[in-house]
Amino acid sequence: MAIEPPFFEKYKAILQSSANEKEKPSTVEGFDELELPLIDLSHLNLGQLERQECIEKMGQAAIEWGFFQIVNHGVPDELLNRLKQEQIKVFQQPFDKKSESNFLNLSVQSYRWGNPLATSLRNLSWSEALHISLKDISKMDEYNKLRSTIEEYAEKANFLAQRLAEYLAQNLGIKANYFQENCSPSSSSLRMNRYPPCPYPSMMFGIIPHTDTDFLTIVSQDQVGGLQLKRNGRWVSVKPNPKALVVNIGDFYQALSNGVYKSITHRVIANQETERYSAAYFYCPTYETVIESCSKPSLYKKFSFKEYREQIQKDVKATGDKVGLSRFLL
Ligand SMILES: O=C(O)CCC(=O)C(=O)O
Ligand SMILES: [Fe+2]
After folding, report:
1. ipTM passes above 0.95
2. Cα 236 to middle of ligand 2, angstroms
3. 265 in Cβ contact with 190 (< 8 Å)
4. How many whole angstroms from 47 Cα to the centroid of ligand 2?
5. Whose CA is nearest to atom 3 of ligand 1?
6. Among 83, 102, 84, 90, residue whose Cα is nearest residue 128
7. 26-296 under CATH 2.60.120.330, yes or no
8. What is the SS3 assignment for 89?
């Protein structure tokens, strides 16, 4: 039984009607490959001076890049490898099974593929994902190894994300318990991505350009590469580092920091030869949490996570794409 989603059948009409279109996504040019600012979290346990330097470096990266990579992050390699093996196993299941509405007993639409609302080449994506809201994890079969591995990973990732969010808050005067009060291990989600080899890498993306809807994201990726971010108006490729996790600022931290930290547009380019895997942990508050700039005058209206999500759903339906924070500018 075939494991691949029917990308070609789904996209055939768009591909054919765009065959002569001049405006193709710009995925074919050469890209600079850059190393993200590297933060060694072991420095937090050295003297006061090293600790302060480390926190400042993290803040500076969040201001200038919106992205950084962390080493000595406390998530064991063995656990990351196990998560990847479980991820491979789940995506190797037949497409018909993955697309069943109660796949793994999770909510509908936990398994996603391509961009169901794509209307043009600009928003075609060649990837599949399992998007798990961590409050749903208890619905999964208890004896499932995927479930226990995700639970183990989510606990570590939540601890790490909260620490990172708190260190970043120190530079801005946000109160120390802000994240503890508004986020819980079950308010976040884990998105496991698989990018199968794509026969049309110059025509579409692995994931279309977007910003993340959360405070911050922790990404574990393999060594294939393909993640790119927008920097000074140009797309640059992130060089994979086998020892590091990638961290990026999401829309909520940009709003909370009043635009000081940047939620940067990123994408994944499609690869003709090699399959790629990544897992993104989205550190989110509860739905009721109201996000308000930490300094005045505010750039953004205050909004709840629920309102933000509803706005995205409306925009995605209308345009095939989320609009995001610019909707909430004052
Ligand atoms: O695959 C990656 O490296 C990034 C994935 C991503 O941006 C996302 O899932 O939001
Ligand atoms: Fe993302």
Report:
1. yes
2. 15
3. no
4. 34
5. 227
6. 90
7. yes
8. helix
